[in-house]
Amino acid sequence: MCGRYASSRDPSDLVVEFEIESGNVRESVQELPDNYNVAPTDSVIAVVERKNREVPDETIRKLTTVKWGLVPSWAKDTSIGSRLINARMETVAEKPAFKKAFATRRCILPADGYYEWYKSEQKVNGKPVKQPYFIRPADGGVLAMAGLYEIWRDKSVEDPDQDEAWLWTCTVLTTTATDDLGRIHDRMPLLVERERYDAWLDPLSSDPDDLLDLLVPAAPGRLEAYAVSKAVSSVKNNGPHLIDPLPPDGVDPIDKPEEPEETTLF
């Protein structure tokens, strides 16, 4: 599964990467701070493509923000979202929670990389110690995760023309991990290759078989993985230090005893 990731790309870089006109970037994108510990229910950046209401045969690509954790349009409340952060590729076209979004509301969730936890042989109180790893494109490029989005009507807001009346949410599609990453975790996010951005985002395309053919696991060697501090395991921690590799000695910074503060004698 994908349960945490890092997102710190400048919106201007994403505009270029996904060929978005500057006027189609929502203000909320500019206001969203860098997040090196994205967790479920957080607001995240998404690339979506919507039908042009004025020209039905045309679409408009936008950079917007959504909440991570899909809330289907038929849901009675938003609590279901925390349980729908991932959608399995194997069943996404049939599951009631995802079927409609898969057909017409697909998106790309840009990331720097994502985290997975490996159950090590070390144990504490009889339980395996989980070592977090950061997995990212080896070339430093954008990780374009395949996602779905939904729009849920909040009926507590009477005026449907208010932004607050509509909640935009998303989920990340996952698949079986490739051999080089399966040693860490058996699932991984599905990626959308650059030459397939247009086809994946196109809301006018809805054939399940054609859509599934667009998605592929990362090619062997395309992603690199390295151990990082267990500090990322707490959502309270954030900052670029979370994606730093462990030092050569392998000692996690959070496991090192604090050095006493220096004092000056007068």
Automatic annotation (TrEMBL):
GO terms for molecular function: lyase activity; peptidase activity; single-stranded DNA binding. Coiled coil: none annotated. Its EC number is 3.4.-.-. It holds the Pfam family SRAP. InterPro entries: SRAP, SRAP-like. GO terms for biological process: protein-DNA covalent cross-linking repair; proteolysis. It is an enzyme of class 3 (hydrolase). Keywords: Covalent protein-DNA linkage, DNA damage, DNA-binding, Hydrolase, Lyase, Protease. Residues 237-266 are annotated as: Disordered. Belongs to the SOS response-associated peptidase family. This is Abasic site processing protein.
